[in-house]
Amino acid sequence: MVPHEISPKIGQHYVDALRARFGSAILNEDWRTSDQVAVTVELNSLPDVVENLYYQQGGWLSSVIGNDERSLNGNFALYYILSMEDTVKSWVMVKALVPPHQPEFPSVTAKIPAAVWYERDVRDLFGLNPIGIPDNRRLTLPDDWPADVHPLRKDAMDYRYRPEPTTDEETFEFINVEGEGIVEVPLGPLHVTSDEPGHFRLYVDGETIMDADYRLFFVHRGMEKLAENRMDYNQIPFLADRICGICGYAHSVAYSTSVEAALGLEVPERAKYIRTILLETERLHSHLLNLGLACHFVGFDTGFMQFFRVREKTMKMAEILTGARKTYGMNLVGGIRRDILKEERQQCLKFIAELRVEVNTLLDILVHTPNLVERTANVGALEPTVARDFSPVGPTVRGSGFTRDTRADHAYCAYGLVPWSVISKTGNDVLSRTLIRAEEWYESAAIVERCLDNMPDGPIMIEGFDYKPHQFALGYVEAPRGEDIHFTMTGDNQKVFRWRPRASSFNNWPGVRYMLRGNLISNAPLIVASIDPCYSCTERVTIIDIRKKKAQVVAYKELERYCRERKHSPLK
Amino acid sequence: MLNLLKEVIKVGEATTKYPLESLDLAPGFRGKPVYNPELCLACAACTTVCPPNALAMDTDTEHGVRTWSLFYGRCIFCGRCEEVCPTGAITLSPDFELAAFNKNDLVVRADFKLLECRVCNRYFAPGKELTYVLALLEQAGLPGPEVAQRRSLLEVCPECKRKCNVESIKRVGVGNPVEVKR
Ligand code: SF4
Ligand code: SF4
Question: How far is CA A505 from the centre of its chain?
Fold first, then answer.
């Protein structure tokens, strides 16, 4: 299947170590690019192989993909994507085939907690049952979706099919935390920070959160099915843009690069620089947005206004570079659609110089606001051990002492061509994550300047290539919230056979439960905001008092007010 | 706090007078696509690439009409239509003020007459597209009689062309009534 002999093979020793340890359970080795290898293993050895790569060989779980390959090889397939970050950085995709007559597989979650959402996702969308998974509840599909319809099976349904809702009541089973004095606090249907949909349940003892549970995916849009059925290769970048309203461009780059990698295409260098400039422009506005929100949540609204005022300049930069306030609509497979002209370049350099002065002033004011440090230090701890188990990404993991950054670990676009540094901190708390964004902002500004200064002349798009069927590879981008990773397999009808985008928040959510534990309920909005989450938008909080065994629904606005003022607890 | 106050005073008013004053847009701003039916060939290149299906082409083979339509409510201002249009019939403008009281005010339509196939008399392609192709050929230096011959060839629908063998295609000569041996 490999179009040409791949060399060098970066990360070969990871595969050799697997062969030495698991012998004949390793069935096949398929190099997709020089640092992406798919290793097919016996289904029963799947958890052990993934565990070996994860804990013994320095892997982190970046994605899990289900695929209906019955038309290709008679089976369903699972791909566990590991970002190998020991001394050698590469990607290993552990592939296992699941026979259709027995649609189940041994769950990896018992060994690696990071797999939990992925396996629930694969179960919902493909009907493949993870045997032994500790948490078997629905994830992606609505709770009243018909049990036997698994949307991503090729023969399951038309992509426009929408079953009638069967109930208006929420039927999701939340975990049951019992104990003397624990109160349950439902949070939602609107999200605590960004007015997005999710239902949180906080279990509190007095004012302290003992545990948390949440139900998200109320706005699952079915983009994967849509892309497979109705879009062609060059329409998907525009759909990928719309995965996120803040960092959509990152997704469109991840998609385009995944197809380019699958086909073995090398885009022109100038296109790589322009993609990098636009990606960092997106980070510039996204980090300012989050810093503004941080002000808002500690009750410092003037700061919020000021950050948003300054952020406007980054939006203008996007407008100059792309013709729209969001860096949307710029990618096609093979390169970029719009060049950067000389005057545009000069205008942007001037903007960045001005922005730097303004952000300096604002950050100085922010860090000297006594409220900020007092409210965020030692709050919402993500312990490094928990981080290691859940594979979080972006500022969330970098705030807990890790230097994981896809831009450095798997340098794509022009990140390997200009100098810059990864920012990481060891406080594990909301403050660390906030300060990381502040410092990263300056790195981003520098990257944009260096790219604008150094980008070579030349074409920005390659054309005249063919789409070979059933080639697959990964595309990845460090979005403002962390790594986005896309898996794409080409089809034989000018459409993708499988496209699985994974946004950064997907890897950050499962760990939030641990970040909330032991904190005051008035800090919950602050903690959730510190991962800068995406839900795709409304929120309800249920607070359950375990002592009084009493549930109470608190409107989000009320909790947000309490977070900001910390007066008049809604629980009293 | 003092610094903040200084900053606030220094900045003064941060907002603009829009909509009383017009907004300052960057050159190349991507707004409402503007359509010129005079130039349009109804070739459907734009409707094929449009990612959100804002553009559509409906063909009524019974009455020989093809309808081009654009619904601004779905448009994402990507400019793919402009990129692929062979004649410049659709171009993006800087206009971003698209609010309307009625959804139907956001739809633009144009009807095109379809050509009848010389063999089976079924409607198959927009007449303008054919004229455009012939004009291109003429411009490329093809002599007049040959252009006329091409025209009669092009006036046969693809299905009939497939059915005809090379010999009978030749017989669809200039101005001759067509007979096809099956
Ligand atoms: S600008 Fe894009 S979305 Fe709008 S009509 Fe053209 S192709 Fe369609
Ligand atoms: S691509 Fe241009 S000529 Fe063809 S249908 Fe669209 S607007 Fe008309």
Answer: 4
Please check whether residues B82 and B147 belong to one and the same domain: no
What's the gap in Å between B85 CA and the centre of ligand 2?
A: 5
Q: How far is the CA of A249 from the centre of ligand 2 (A)?
A: 28
The domain tally of chain B equals: 2
How far is Cα A435 from Cα A70, in angstroms, rounded to an integer? 48
Dihedral of CA atoms A48, A49, A54, A56 in degrees, nearest 10, equals 80
Cα of A555 from ligand 1 centre, angstroms: 40
Nearest-angstrom CA–CA distance, A335 and A468: 18
Q: What single DSSP character describes residue A54?
A: I
Ligand 2 proximity of B41 Cβ (cutoff 6 Å): yes
* Lookup result for tokens 């130039």: B39
**What is the C-alpha end-to-end distance of chain A, expressed in Å?**
65
The tokens describing A224, both together, are 């994967």
CA distance A259 to A36: 13
The DSSP call for residue B117 is P
A365 touches chain B (CB under 8 A): yes
Q: Indicate if ligand 2 lies below 6 Å from the C-beta of B89.
A: yes
Q: Does B18 touch chain A (CB under 8 A)?
A: no
More confident residue, A211 or A552: A211
- Structural domain harbouring B179: 117-182
**Are the beta carbons of A112 and A51 closer than 8 angstroms?**
yes
Model confidence over A430-475: pLDDT tens digits?
999 999 999 999 999 999 999 999 999 999 999 889 999 999 999 9
For domain A227-502, is the CATH number 1.20.1640.10? Answer: no
The reply to whether A125 touches chain B by the CB within 8 Å rule is: no
Q: Tens digit of pLDDT for each residue in A403-412?
A: 999 999 999 9
User: Which of B92, B116, B140 delimits the end of a domain?
Assistant: B116
| Domain end marker among B116, B138, B172 | B116
- CATH architecture under which domain A1-172 falls: 2-Layer Sandwich (3.30)
ipTM of the complex: 0.84
Residue A204 per-residue DSSP state: E
pLDDT exceeds cutoff 90 at A247? no
Listed by start position, the domains of chain A span 1-172, 181-219+507-565, 227-502
List, in sequence order, every beta strand (DSSP E) within B16-145: 33-35, 55-60, 65-71, 90-92, 107-116, 123-126
Give, for ligand 1, the residue of B50, B57, B109 to mutate: max count of ligand atoms closer than 8 Å to Cβ.
B50
Residue closest to B163 by CA, chosen among B106, B121, B110, B120:
B120
Model pTM score: 0.89
In a domain, B171, yes or no: yes
